[in-house]
């Protein structure tokens, strides 16, 4: 690979990572703006956020796969798939708005499990790249996302109606900040970066 090709690859890699980070921050802010919406609207909003996050994650990870460690790419694709499956499942159950509160409680466990898995992957990736600038964000993202997952899976039914949107928003915000902070520190050092 020539120097120009490597530089173009790095620029493309950074552009996708920063774009994914911006999308996640915007989605996180939207989730925080609407935390107390009726249960059916909250479920629908979370479903859309998960679908968009999953689609963006797949596109971004495939575009950056040549510059990521294989295990990191694999687990990020698994997480993006979990977001897609969770979002699609939630939308399929939105046919009866009266069941929205039960839907939120049912999917809270799935969302909590996704956050637990995402937190572990982000934390381990941050530790694996601890010498890189910005790895502290990956570690912090992993810890916070894991804690959010624990909070979700241990909540009582009535708490899920308003807290779930806030927790999703916080997780997306930290994931977006993590991506932007880490990718903005990348430079061509002949080492394939691995974002969380």
UniProtKB/TrEMBL annotation:
One protein family per Pfam: DUF308
Transmembrane segments: 12-34, 40-59, 71-94, 100-124, 136-154, 160-182
InterPro entries: Acid_resist_chaperone_HdeD, DUF308_memb
Cellular component annotations (GO), alphabetically ordered: plasma membrane
Keywords: Membrane, Transmembrane, Transmembrane helix
Top-rank taxon: Bacteria
Protein name: Acid-resistance membrane protein
Lineage of origin: Bacteria, Bacillati, Cyanobacteriota, Cyanophyceae, Synechococcales
